[in-house]
Here is the input.
Amino acid sequence: MHLGIRIGVFDSGVGGLTVLKSLQQTFPEAHFVYYADSNRAPYGTLDTETIWRYSARIVNYLLDREVDLIVVGCNTVTTEVIERLRANYAVPFVGIEPAIKPAAQSSSSKCIGILATERTLNSIGYTRTRDQYASECKVIERVGVGLVEEIEKGIIESAALNALVESFVIDFEEQSIDTLVLGCTHYVLIRSLFSRCFKNPITLMDANEAVAQRAFNLATPVKQVQQMVECYTSGSTQLLRRIIDHLEINAVTKIEQLEL
Here is the structure.
């Protein structure tokens, strides 16, 4: 079944475009409005009230664009303020969390790695999910220091980014993990880089498909929606376009700089 619907998606930067890619496969007839707050990325270093203020500005804009559902493509916003967003706005919200449950279920060695921001790893929601679904696993948690900042430069194959990824991979391989959760949507952009750097077989997992399915379950179809993707950023439109091309996102009708 195809759904005609207007969906807003936002992230602290370009990482949420990986979520948009999954959503577009689930909603082939949707009208998407995407906002990347790259000028203020990463959100993980900000206090909760600042994250709320930035998120509320973006949500207000998306609602002005008459979206029917909003997907939060940022783990930090999800863990810090999504319940507050739900309490203050009538539109349905879909958040994103690291894919701990499927990783724990699929791991044969029961030794999994979680790569995420410090804010995500320290959050109550993450801890609760880990303790509930990965209690029988050895969980190796690492903060992806520097990854978001390098990815936001838009050079996916840079030497600096490759060196960063290799340093994390060496650490995880020393811990003998067989499954790695990419716990930030930015990291999904360099999934292939992680795959190449691991010497031993590894399963890489992210939550994007689960988010798209959750959005599908909550969606109410509307009529007369033209398939298109509008993309806005507080940062560089060249960066946004580069990542859009890298992900091969189709039906993009607009890429504009917009400060909210």
